[in-house]
Amino acid sequence: MIVQHDVFRILRGGSFILTLLFVAPWLGFSAALADGTLFFTDIFNPSFSDGFIRRVETDGTGLQTVLSGGGGLRGIAVYPDSEYVYYTDVDLDQIRRCNFDGGNVRTLVYGPVFPMEIAIDPAADLLVWGDQGAGVIGVAHLDGTGAHTLLTTSFAAGLALDTVNGKIYWSTALTGSTGEILRADYDGSNSQTVVSESDRPARLALDISGGKVYWTDYVVDVVRRANLDGTEVETIFDAGGNHNPDGICLDLAAGKVYWGQEGVQVNREMIKCMNFDGTAVEDVIDGFGIVASIDLKAAPFSSVGSGPAAMRLLTVSPNPFAGSAALRLDLPQDASIRLSIYSVDGRRITTLHSGILARGRHQLIWDGTDQGGVMAPPGVYFCRMDAGAAVEKIPMVLIQ
C-alpha cells in the first residue's frame, strides 16, 4: 500500500493542484473527518479464483465494483490526477492499470513472477513493485517503459515510498520467525534494515511529516508503527487471534489509519479505521474476501454556504516546502476573505489576509512563521479560507 497519494500527494518540489478537503464551518479544524474514496483489492471472494477491485467512500457508503480481475489481483495504487488505478496480477504475471471506472485496462509490465505489491511516485515518474516469487524490487516509468530489477531482496507484501526523501520501504519475511522492514534510496543504494522483530510485518504505509512507518502483521494480528528509523516500535491496535490485519493506508490530513482484517463473519474481511495513535477504532464496511491492498483517493472539492461561487485555493507551491510556500486563490467576484494557517490540532498559527479581495487570482506567501514571527516546527499544517459561510482548507507540509 502506498502513502504517496493519500489525502494529498507529497512532492519533492514543483507545483501541483491539491485536492481540496471540505470541512463544514461548525465542525472546526480539530474535528475534521476523513473524506474520500478507498480503492482496494478484494480477493478469494466468493471463491479462490475470484478477485475484484472495489471502491467505497470512507464512511462505508457507495460500494462499487471497479474491475473483476480474478484471483490474481494483489497490490493497488491510486493516481488521482490521472484517474488511474495501478495494480498487480500474480496469475498473469503483470503490472497493469485501468481507469477509475475499470475501463481502459492496459498491461504496463510483463514478466514479474509474483508481483505482490505496487507503489507510485508521479513526481519522479516512478513505478515500483515487489516481486515475492523472484525476490526482487522492480522499477519502471509510470507508462511501464524502462522496466528493470532495482534490488535483489526477500520480499513479503509491504511496499511504500518516501517521496520527500526518495526512499523505498519494504517488508521481507514471508515465512520464518523473524520479519524485517528495509529501506533503500530510489537508485537502490544505501539499503538498510529499519525494523527487525520476532513477528512478520506485512503491508506498509508511511507518514513522512510525522516521521512514522505503519504496518500490519497478520501473524500476531496487530497494527504497529515506529519511527522511520525503526526506533520506538509500538502496537497501536490488537486485532485478536486470527483476525489477520492486511492491507493498510493512511489519511494524512485527517490523521486516520485504514486497514483490512477478518470481520464478524468467518473468512470474510472488513475495513476498519482509527486515529494514528490507535484511538477511536471504527468499522467502515464488511463482507469481503481478503482486503489484500488498499489506497485512498481524497474527495473532490465541495463547498457550502453563501460564499462566492466556485471560489477556491488553486495551488500551494512547493509542497512540501522549506522556507516559504505560495498560496494561489481564484475568486469569481469581490469577496471578504480570511486566510489563516492552522496546526493539525486546530491552533491558529497566523493569518495571511483578512479583508476584501477583488475578483481574479491572487497569490499570498506563508514563510513558515507564526503571528509573532517565530518559525513553526516541521509538520502538517492547513491553510483555511473563510468567505462568508463558505470554508475551504488545504494541507501543507513544512519540512524544515
TrEMBL record:
<protein>
    <submittedName>
        <fullName>PQQ-binding-like beta-propeller repeat protein</fullName>
    </submittedName>
</protein>
<feature type="domain" description="FlgD/Vpr Ig-like">
    <location>
        <begin position="322"/>
        <end position="387"/>
    </location>
</feature>
<dbReference type="Pfam" id="PF00058">
    <property type="entry name" value="Ldl_recept_b"/>
</dbReference>
<dbReference type="InterPro" id="IPR000033">
    <property type="entry name" value="LDLR_classB_rpt"/>
</dbReference>
<dbReference type="Pfam" id="PF13860">
    <property type="entry name" value="FlgD_ig"/>
</dbReference>
<dbReference type="InterPro" id="IPR050778">
    <property type="entry name" value="Cueball_EGF_LRP_Nidogen"/>
</dbReference>
<dbReference type="InterPro" id="IPR025965">
    <property type="entry name" value="FlgD/Vpr_Ig-like"/>
</dbReference>
<dbReference type="InterPro" id="IPR011042">
    <property type="entry name" value="6-blade_b-propeller_TolB-like"/>
</dbReference>
